[in-house]
Specification:
Length: 357
Amino acid sequence: MKVIDIEKKPESEKIFFGDFGHYLRVDEISHDIARKLKEASEGNTWFAKEVDYKSDKTRFAELPIDAQRAFKLNIAYQTLMDSGVTSGFSSILNRIVTSSIWSILYARIAIEENIHAESYSYGLSEVFGHEATETLDLVYNDPFVRTRMEKEVELFGEVDKLCNLDGMDVSEDDKKKAILKLIIGIYLLESIKFPFSFLVTFTINDKYDNAITGFTKTIKLIAHDELNTHVPTGKNVMNILRKEKDQGFSHLFDNGWFDATALEMVTYVVEQEIEWAKYLFDGYEVAGINSSISEHFIKYWAGVRLKDIGVDTPYAKEPSSDIIDWFNNYKDINKQNAALQETTNTSYQKGTLKNDL
């Protein structure tokens, strides 16, 4: 890949496999939704150190041991995943995007994922000092956390192998299938796995008298990025590739390959998340959440996410519930919880967008 190649002109940019010289220009935009998502991302810009963790520092010890355990395992996993996604977006996915506006959007998403990973480490350091290392080291020392990103690493690696190495005897369809599987994998990570991790933090804070207000505020900011920009990005990319023939991917949707692959992948994610929930809660007591509540939450969102990309699934039969309504309300950064007034208000004013995507 040349750093920049001005011999290539962007008359007809495609999201993937286009003729792209990395000359970023937005005088002619291939998809207006990408511009809107980029602007949504810009409207919610925030930084790790703007969150105040003073309350968490004094009150975290009030949590029961089982709640502390679930929180630490969960945040170690989140740090690992956001670090991996940052690396994957920056070094692999952004190298195969061949559209100016989508390249800009994915670059912004990579920056946001970096801020997410940094914010977890910063919060842990603020609250626990040198003892934060013990929690962050769970990615090495806890066997369940160690395996939490294996599938995503595999998907990024397959795209890298097929699309970015010269001399490979591989068909274009094999490359396209690898890209679609990666996009599905990222989408399921951000739209099912991450929301479940958010639910864990929100529930612990809510049920234990707002003992982790700083961490909760950070997770609300992260949830806004993921669910208002990152998830719609994946959804829109897949729907564009399905509908627009000139993108070169529609035959993989028309012949049923995509739908079957997405269903297989979401089934695997649901099974893995249910096992993770059992590891967090079975044999332990955390107020307001258990593996049964978690299973319902995971299956519900699996149904919603597949429906959003046009895939029929038995998970669509999972009904909504009070826990879904509570989660949707609690995560909204524009609805201040009075109990969170111990923290600063700066970030809660962010995310008020002209376009509700």
